[in-house]
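Standup notes
- DV: blocked on the single-chain target, sequence here:
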Amino acid sequence: MAREETRVAVEGREINISNLDKVLFPAAGFTKGQLIDYYAKVGPAMLPHIADRPLTMKRFPDGVERPYFYEKHVPSHAPDWVRTIDVPSSDGEEGVEYTVIDELATLVWAAQLGAIELHVPLWRIGRRRNLPGPPDLIVFDLDPGEGTDVVECCSVALLVRQMLDDRGLEGLAKTSGSKGLQVYAKLKGRATWDKSRTDAHDIATALEKAHPDEVISVMRKSLRKGKVFIDWSQNHPAKTTVAVYSVRGRAQPTASTPVTWDEVEACATAGKADLLEFTATDVIDRVNKMGDLFATLT
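- DV (later): unblocked, structure below
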């Protein structure tokens, strides 16, 4: 089949766009063109959160039902205007030259590559010569074990929110876009990885101790049945979490979506997981109506 290619301009940058009609989500009939359109529209809300952060792309060149791969290294065919940053390896091996999405054109270009999922770390590059930099965010990734879903994650998220509030931090929640929920907070002052990791671990273990039938803080999957795993270990310079507003590579084009605490409480009370499931189309509607619920984290 001939490759259908169009050259488009995005804020003064020219990008080759191809195969807009290719179906990336067969169950939903959601195409590559719709993916690119989503990222172009959500870009103004998304860019402040991913800018100045090394990017890991999860690429699905032939759609979510076909093989995918993670890409940290900037592709060799990237336009010369795409920003990159070389991050040294922690184990002494050769560093990685990452893509950095600082502008809408780069976001559209990444979508053109079939990068359905975008993942970023909890630190920014800034003007530092020594990378990785210190954390600017703390995150709790709530993963439902067997027999639980996002409803139970909502109950645990409310507990995490209170623990953060006790430490003078404002917790904000977003769906993972998959099965769980994530709670973020912006760190204050001169944060360090040792402190943020210790604080995250302390909160997770304290909640496990206070709510042993609902919460677990260790990674062993055999212990998670009927409980929500609080993954505190994501607070590490080498780890990434799915970016806010990123689409996920599932059957439906769901996206990682900021939610209000009223919505979290409503889901926990009603026991209806679908209250917190949002597709790319839903997200655009929500941003147009509610703005960026994660704005205070930038």
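- Follow-up: The radius of gyration is 19 Å.
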